[in-house]
Design goal:
The protein is an all-alpha fold. It is built from 8 helices and no strands. The radius of gyration is 16 Å and the shape is globular. The protein starts with 9 loop residues before the first helix and ends with a helix.
Length: 154
Amino acid sequence: MGRPLKPKTPVAARLIEIRGSRSRGDFAQELGQKEGTYVTYEKGVSAPSVEFLQQLANSEGINLHWLLTGEGEMYLPEEPPAQALDASLMETIVITIAEFLAQNRKVRIEPDKLWLIYMVCYRKLAEIKDKFPPEQTRILLKEELKDLLYLATK
């Protein structure tokens, strides 16, 4: 087994908890990831992709709300969860952040701050998603993100 990692983010620490005693290589392979990519998730150096998060939820039964926020139960109940992560909301956030970073190439955001931004945006978007049409929701998210991302770079 590889040497222990010191995670930089709460999400990275929770990934280590999920993996348990399995080797990083075996766990990564079970989830369809390269070990090197998975290690960056466990270290908190990079954020897991939406596809990885969906695979983790499907194969391990992990509650993604717990993974991202630390709130609720680690594992999904047998019935559909009340606080399941909405993949379309998360996709909107990931795309919006990626667009911002592409337009502002010099901006560097530390992973622990990026996770906080994901969490704040997810909560905000979850609150307003049914109040506005999708395009207006995305515009509101972009405005919120702009402020958060600039604050995160300070």
